[in-house]
Amino acid sequence: MQQAGKIPFPVQRKVMLNLMEQAFAEPLEDGDFEFLEGKWLKVEISDLQLRWFFSYSEEDGLIASPDEIEDAGIRGNLKEFVLLATRSEDPDSLFFQRRLMIEGDTEVGLEVKNLMDSVDQDSLPPMIKLILNKGAPLLSKLL
């Protein structure tokens, strides 16, 4: 799995933005990402050697970049991000136990954590629900 970091960034960007725009369609529509305007958030999946930098602009919506100077960051292993996304484990526990870590501007990091935690699982597109519901148990066994 460590080869995931070798995937060209344009491919990663297309996939990540597509998934995020689907998963966060309602918060994006409601303007809940405006706190990221002019700021960069680094999301790092440590065990896969993947990292992305996200920002938001009113004109373009979500923006992804391969390298920026981050204002805040969230990092952890894939398993912890899956546990967070599926709500298989309490989000506060994941952060308190430092299995997921917020770095830099804590206010921005906490806004992102709360935004991730507020996504209604029932409003997710069917493909994302399928990936989370079927993939999470498999990943838990593998990782």
UniProtKB/TrEMBL annotation:
Keyword Protein biosynthesis belongs to the record: no
Top-level taxon: Bacteria
Pathway given for this chain reads: Cofactor biosynthesis; ubiquinone biosynthesis
Keywords assigned? Ubiquinone biosynthesis
* UniProt key word Transmembrane helix: no
GO biological process: any one? Answer: ubiquinone biosynthetic process
**What Pfam families does the annotation carry?**
SCP2 (PF02036)
Q: Residue ranges of the SCP2 domain?
A: 18-117
Q: What family does this belong to?
A: Belongs to the UbiT family.
Primary role: Required for O(2)-independent ubiquinone (coenzyme Q) biosynthesis. Likely functions as an accessory factor.
- The name under which this protein is listed is Ubiquinone biosynthesis accessory factor UbiT
Organism encoding this protein: Motiliproteus coralliicola
